[in-house]
Amino acid sequence: MPELPENETQRLTLERECLNRTIEAVELGENVSYIELPGDNERARLVGRQFTETRRHGKNIFAGSKTGPWMTVHLGMTGSLVPFDAPDDPPDHTKLLIRFEGDRRLAFRCPRKLGHVRVIDDPDDYIAQQGFGPDALDIGKDAFVQAFGKTRSAIKAALMKQERMAGIGNLWSDETLFQCGINPQARASDLGDAKLAEIHGTMRDVLKAVVRAGAQYGELPEDWLIRHRKKGAECRRCGGEITSAKVGGRTAYFCDKHQK
Ligand SMILES: [Zn+2]
Fold first, then answer.
1. FPG-type domain: which residues (predicted)?
2. Domain boundaries, position 76
């Protein structure tokens, strides 16, 4: 599932390709019965407008303007935003298509239908209503240590809980804990302030590096877990073996030797 850095990469694409162009139409794609998309009236609100700015909070992308309305996109498991130019055809699994003036188009692709697109008035109100915690790249060290020091669940599950902190999912919680040498099943409240501060710093470094790499995992360092995230693979840090376990309903990958 796309997490903070994948969504940030998509936001940057939107910012580069789709700003300051008048929207002429917003159309539904095919096979859209089981996906949440804006209805006729909501789509009509976007027509005649331009996106003049973008934002991101956790795994949510926003495009809109000072006076609104805004479009918010959640990519779900497999969604993506694909800008292209007519007369090229939209990609397969396009669920929503925005026609800008001229040839520019923006497709929301979503093969597994778990994403959504909504039209909203204001991103800050929306973030508050949805109950998302602070974005993982915005939360400061002290706030992080305080929030996680109180939680008795497994650290991996705690990192993925969007109401506590938004943006981290399965991949980047595993990577962060791998680089800190912490077992994903360790109870957050048992780690202590120094370890939690280290997790905060490593998490930021990981997220920023993935954004810099444009979420192209092959460009990330060879000794990262993501490059060998497979049961039985050799740990490039200590020679241990990568193993897996269910934590917080997801499959965690970690090294059985250096992650205590
Ligand atoms: Zn190891």
1. 226-260
2. 4-130
- Domain total for the chain? 2
Report yes or no on 84 lying in a domain.
yes
CA of 172 to the centre of ligand 1 (A): 17
Whole-number Å distance, alpha carbon 69 to ligand 1 midpoint, is: 48
C-alpha 3 to ligand 1 mean position (Å): 24
Q: Rounded to the nearest 5°, which phi and psi values hold at 181? A: 70, 35
The Cα 260–Cα 153 span in angstroms is 16
Out of 75, 99, 130, pick the residue that ends a domain.
130
CA 188 / ligand 1 centre spacing (Å): 20
Q: How much distance in Å is there from the Cα of 129 to the middle of ligand 1?
A: 41
The residue from 100, 130, 160 where one domain ends is 130
Dist. CA 153 → ligand 1 center (Å): 23
Distance 189 CA to ligand 1 centre (A): 23
Per-residue pLDDT of the chain (260 residues; tens, 9 = 90+): 899 999 999 999 999 999 999 999 999 998 998 899 999 999 999 999 999 999 999 999 999 999 999 999 999 999 999 999 999 999 999 999 999 999 999 999 999 878 999 999 999 999 999 999 999 999 999 999 999 999 999 999 999 999 999 999 999 999 999 999 999 999 999 999 999 999 999 999 999 999 999 999 999 999 999 999 999 999 999 999 999 999 999 999 999 999 98
Are residues 73 and 112 both part of a single domain? yes
Q: Please tell me the distance between residue 183's alpha carbon and the centre of ligand 1 in angstroms.
A: 11
Same domain flag for 109 and 148: no
Check if the beta carbon of residue 12 is closer than 8 Å to that of residue 19. no
135, part of any domain: no
Query: Residue 178: in which H helix or E strand, if any?
Result: helix 170-180
Distance in Å, CA 185 to ligand 1 centroid: 16
Q: Are 155 and 187 in contact, with CB atoms under 8 Å apart?
A: yes
Residue 190 burial (10 A CB sphere; 0-12, 13-18, 19+): exposed
